[in-house]
Amino acid sequence: KHLVVHEQLEMDLLVKELGVVIEVDGPGHYQPFWSRGKIETQQKADMTKTGLLLSSGFKLIRVKANVKHLADYRQRKTAEAIIDLLNTEKESHSIDKLIYLNVEDY
């Protein structure tokens, strides 16, 4: 569960049989809701987590959700995009090691 002992670096979703991790980065990863120091700490943790996952052999899908509440349509379209990526990986092991999805694109 924890990627680094004594740190709060956890995977949001692990698809173990495919070696794929899905991270959902909500507004707190991009917008300074609390303080500038908090967002910098969050972004540093995100970079550390990304590096650890990739160097451990995982493939990573980072979903950028820059809004607090997604419309049902965007939720469905984003889920479909993730499922398509997972199916591609299952069938041909050919997705990129690091993929960024922006929910605003769907």
Task: List the SSEs and their pairings.
Layout: E1 13-15, E2 20-25, H1 36-55, E3 59-64, H2 72-92, E4 98-102
Parallel strand pairs: 2-3, 3-4
Antiparallel strand pairs: 1-2
Q: What is the average of the pLDDT values?
A: 85
How would a crystallographer describe the biggest sheet? 4 strands, mixed
Strand adjacency order, main sheet: 1-2-3-4
What order do the SSEs take from the amino end to the carboxyl end, as H and E?
EEHEHE
Radius of gyration: 14 Å
Percent of residues in helices: 25-40%
Runs in which pLDDT lies below 50 for 5 or more consecutive residues are none
Number of DSSP helical runs: 2
- Number of DSSP strand runs: 4
Strand content: 15-25%
Structural class: alpha/beta
**N-C termini distance:** 30 Å
A few lines on this structure:
By secondary structure, this protein is α/β, with parallel strands linked by helices. The chain has helices at residues 36-55, 72-92; strands spanning 13-15, 20-25, 59-64, 98-102. The protein has a 4-stranded mixed β-sheet, with helices on both faces.
Fill in the keyword field for this structure.
alpha/beta, 106 residues
Characterization of the model:
The chain is an alpha/beta fold and 106 residues long. 39% of the residues lie in helices and 19% in strands. It contains two helices and four strands. The protein has a four-stranded mixed beta sheet with strand order 1-2-3-4, with helices on both faces.
